[in-house]
């Protein structure tokens, strides 16, 4: 050029020198530090229009498609191989949601073979040609996303979905009979058809628990708080009904919570960016563990810049409170639940839009776990109160704790407390030591808090 000009560039990739194979190193580190066990991909509504072969091979050769659910271009820069590398970097196992919206059983079967087939198979050869001769060995495969909903590409009736599910399972099992399937679940009416028509091939049924959407922004925030943090108490009845319906025909069937989030999306209401999401998530985990094996897995929505999780703003990565709750829970040593008898104050709430009413939800919710060696007891405690400490006494039977315990807790200064670019640590984990008196521990649990108390056994 010898003068002013405009240059049009098709695609341009610029990565900082510290990136991890194209991924933000802070995102990678924080997810790895949280020991996230399972990562669902590619969605979500996006999955119902995603064709996986668009996302393999040289990036420059991949087509740009319209992302119809979100009405934006999809450049296919991140495809199957990039996702698998990301899972490797963060230490999570992959779970794939196949396109059962406008996709076909044959397309899904090819995807199974691409991920799990030997390098001598047709799709395995393509994977090997793309630099990955060893299979990825993906175990969990979800057949479609929310196909009961009119917002979904390819939405259908329960009867049609049952037929699609059967066709997809048959085709995919031919490529790898060892994979684990998750069917699209919904309410009892939808699931009844699915169970009646597919009981012989059902393994696990999904449920998406996205609560609070549609609540008026003029609603009293504290009223929303009580409904959101108390929801897990009401949720136990929904899980029991879904699981009971499934297990009458499929005795080993389980529920998979594959989307989970507070969906108010209002800055002046408790939402997924704040402390409410942390207590909501922890409460769902407590409810799922108490379901005695009926719930097999939970994948929270979502990972970064969508829902609660991590945020990246102006090149700065920081965490929503729910990330810290998940990190505390996933890094504690307890594994096996032990019985808890709980006595204390309770609260009730009336139905609020799509949030159910409930009676006598405990203000303080406690779950207890022991490690494999039964040498460490862990107490997971939630104080749901909006503004009051709760004096709490733990008494131990059958376990003699040492004199000192480690207390980690996450608490917000108010019910809307959240982290931001300018206050990234406003809600973060604090650590203190506690003194145990014999077989009793006394503590004041802060309001709006999630606690993890680790007690080693007395030598």
Q: What does this entry show, briefly?
A:
With about 450 residues, this protein is of the alpha/beta class. It has helices at about 25-35, 80-90, 105-115, 120-130, 160-175, 190-200, 220-245, 275-290, 320-330; strands at about 40, 65, 70-75, 95-100, 140-145, 180-185, 205-210, 255-260, 295-300, 310-315, 315-320, 335-340, 345-350, 360, 365-370, 375-385, 390-395, 405-410, 430-435, 440-445, 450-455. The strands form 6 sheets. It has a 7-stranded parallel sheet. Strands 12-15-16-21-18-19 form a 6-stranded antiparallel sheet, with helices on one face. A two-stranded antiparallel sheet has the order 2-3.
Describe the structure.
This protein has 459 residues and is an alpha/beta fold. The chain folds into two domains: 25-333, TIM Barrel (Alpha-Beta Barrel); 337-456, Immunoglobulin-like (Sandwich), CATH 2.60.40.1180. 27% of the residues lie in helices and 25% in strands. It has nine helices and 21 strands. The chain has helices spanning 25-33, 80-90, 105-116, 122-129, 158-175, 188-198, 221-247, 275-290, 321-331; strands at 38-41, 65-67, 72-74, 93-98, 140-143, 180-183, 204-211, 254-262, 295-298, 310-313, 316-319, 336-338, 346-349, 358-362, 364-370, 376-383, 390-395, 404-411, 429-435, 440-445, 449-456. The strands form six sheets. The chain has a seven-stranded parallel beta sheet with strand order 1-4-5-6-7-8-9. A six-stranded antiparallel beta sheet has the order 12-15-16-21-18-19, with helices on one face. Strands 2-3 form a two-stranded antiparallel ribbon. Helix 6 links the parallel strand 6 (180-183) and strand 7 (204-211). Helix 5 (158-175) packs across helix 6 (188-198), helix 7 (221-247) runs parallel beside helix 8 (275-290) and helix 8 (275-290) packs parallel to helix 9. It starts with 24 loop residues before the first helix and ends with a strand.
